[in-house]
Amino acid sequence: MKCPQCGFRNLPGTKTCGACGADLTVQSQNVSESFYPPRAWGRQFRRFHERAARSRSGWQGTSTQSRPDLSPTSTLLQQAEQRRMRRLIWLTALKSLTGLIPGLGLIWEKRTKEGRNLLLAFLLCAAMVFLCWRNFLSNFALLAILVLSIYSVGATFFAAWQRNNLPTLANFQKAGIWLTIVSLFLWAYVLFRAGLNIVGGVAFMPVTVANDPVIQFGNQVLYSRLSRHLENLKPGDYVLVDTTGARELNPITQRLGEFYNPVRVVFSPSTIGRIEAVRQSESGTELVISVPLIFGSQTIHEKVLVPINAVQGKIIAILNPPSCRRWLP
């Protein structure tokens, strides 16, 4: 039974409204609307009536238009609308992932002109990276691709938002969405590096000692710990090796003679060296590796003999500086 004043739905036979206290005896004689018993609504129906009872005192003295409609039908419709809005927002977020390739998402959302311009800029930057891989210009091209991807994802999200007729966003909400997109890119970068290290057996490390014209001081290299890389080592490969138990093939004392005593030669625990030869001995496979030795304040290169199990990883790429950036065999 619906109250004629506040619109609250009461149980059949109720003499006064449970929300506003209006007299329902006159209307109860001509009840023709359907009613859903409490057991059909379950906990939701009881919760609506409890909410109405708590708010009854606040409704006294207010107009009928300002009183909220707490009927079960109205509330369930609101919940269904909220679920529809959440679904649209998630679909909009998924559509924005097409913007990872700059311009593709905007073309999908019928913003062809802007999408083509972004796609053309992306192709130009990709061509610059390919042609200038060992030049400093490739750094600017890679940075430009990252900026284009972030902008493309954000622009695709807002275009899909507007196309789905979602509520208009305020400026601070737009700023929050942009910050969220940038944060997701940063998290993706961190997870990418962690995934390479944990799952793929690949890691990054800076070179702190200049040991070869190819790998220079300050480089950052990418090395792999996968067994298939470590089992196929051959002369010419660059490896990360533990030189704690290494033996010098050409002892430095033979060249320094009497000047050797006041100077201390130090092996770096982990260093990068180039494999010169592979030998078979009674103890197993051994590698002749050219590694840097710290001699006082200078760094010199010596050939050392290490067991194959001392190799911690194989260098597969040099990432920086651009003049030395390359993929190693």
Order of helices and strands: HHHHHHHEEHEEHEEEEEE
Helix count, DSSP H or I runs of 4 or more residues: 9
Low-confidence segments, ≥5 residues, pLDDT <50? 253-265
State the share of residues found in helices, binned by percent: 40-55%
What is the straight-line distance between the termini?
A: 83 Å
For the largest beta-sheet, the strand count, sense and barrel status come to: 10 strands, antiparallel
Instruction: Bin the strand percentage.
Output: 15-25%
Radius of gyration in whole Å, from Cα? 36 Å
Number of domains: 3
Mean of pLDDT: 78
The total of beta strands comes to: 10
Class by helix and strand content?
A: alpha+beta
Shape: elongated
